Here is the input.
Amino acid sequence: MARALLALFIIFFLFQLGAFAKKKGEMQNTHNFTLHWPLYLYIFTVMLSLTLGFAIIYYIASFGSPILIDSNQGKIVQNHNFAEMIYYSGATLLSIGYGDLNPLGAVRYISLFEGFLGIVTPTVIFVSEITKNNSAG
Here is the structure.
């Protein structure tokens, strides 16, 4: 099961790289500081890919031992499901931080990195697009 999920993640990641290469060429011709829909769609796709990618990592990590504490009940979550991992990954990536689920062990550092990517990734994409448009105009 873990290998199948990892294989799906790798295929999805490679697909996203191909879409990025294609979209990068299209965005160069599309934007003239108006920031049309393709840029926002691209940012959404990248963020969704990161959310799903980290959810898979968390889900695979949960096979060995519990990785989250439910702060509302004060208990370690024993049975993780993939939907819960998507929720946790999305809340972490978007820096929402509800506080209902807290990571344990090494997952804390993975979560820190995901939170960092959640702030830096859309910022870098957006700023690089604006900088490119300003230098072209």
